[in-house]
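Researcher: I'd like a structural prediction for the single chain below. Treat it as a standalone chain; there are no partners to consider.
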Amino acid sequence: MNNLIDLAKVIGSGLTNQNCYLSLQRVNQEEGTFWSYRGDAKSGIWCSHSDWAAGVTQISSLNSVPDDLMPAMIASLFSIVSVPFVRDINTQGEAASLPSDIYPVVQCNGYQFVLVGFSPTWIKRLTVSWTTYSAPPIKVKVPLISGYMVDPKPVLEGEGVWLRDGHSPDSGTAILWWGKPIASIQYHEEKTWFVNKLYAPYSLTDQVSYVQIATLDMNLQDILLLENTQVFEADLICEVESKLISNGQCVARGELLVSQDGVVFYTNQKLENEA
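Model: Treating it as a single chain, here is the predicted structure.
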């Protein structure tokens, strides 16, 4: 989650160079080809079969690419990113299905390809000479939580756990969460929210579980632009019950008990492997 925020800080609303455009886009799972970077199986270029065919058509009259021309074709299609970068791309691609997610996508001349597994710092160096442009905004679902637990113990049905930085939904307050606390917010009116305070940027070093009470449907860039006392707009998607989330999985459902001392998550049902 946090890596997506860091990528958004680098790419912003979009970058452009020589009639090609780089932006964060939601890519649906599809079959294609993956070319690794410097032999790293986790980073490289992925291109769907249809976009590869469209790109080949753009620059040649070939219906298929002979093996001896493959290095030249890869260089022609992907060199817009960087010539030195393409030199380190393995020309022996492998069939691969890209999982549905949000990725840096390069679009140019009727085809597109995806940059997979590269750090925000690496992409920043690669696009230092690119200029900005406005791509369509990306919507993300951001958890609203009532509090969290650091290094939590396994939960048991019929037991309660005190939450760190507990917020009471009854008062219209919650924590905007993206792998860590982003902001303490309060319901304002008509799909709008008031930022009570922004949390200082830091990383949580211990394992954390949190109690999710809802999600907000937000533009990714809006998360980066939040300020104290700001009012912003976002659609609310409520949960039927409070959910305890650990390692990206719902491990328990329950209810919140609020007192002057804080907020407790009371476990009604322990779950196994629920998404």
